[in-house]
Amino acid sequence: MRMSNVIKERKLSQSASCKIDTVVQQLFLPMLQMTTPSHTSFQPEDSDDALMRQISQEKPEAVKTEEIFVEYMVELYRKFQVRNV
Asked: Fewer CB within 10 A of the end CB, N or C, for the chain?
């Protein structure tokens, strides 16, 4: 029987508290830095308004003209398509 020169990487076992700490550090703490709206609406038409407000605040150049806005939305659509294929 030949011994392999490949060394298998050992999986480190973690305690439950270490796993919870990892999730908190990687998921929940970054969420604290995200901006949140002052209120949440579940009406479909309100989501359109919220999206337009967000775009106009974060990318004001994207809403200067209709043509620029359409180009921006097409770019977003294409990015979305690539990620979801």
From this structure: N
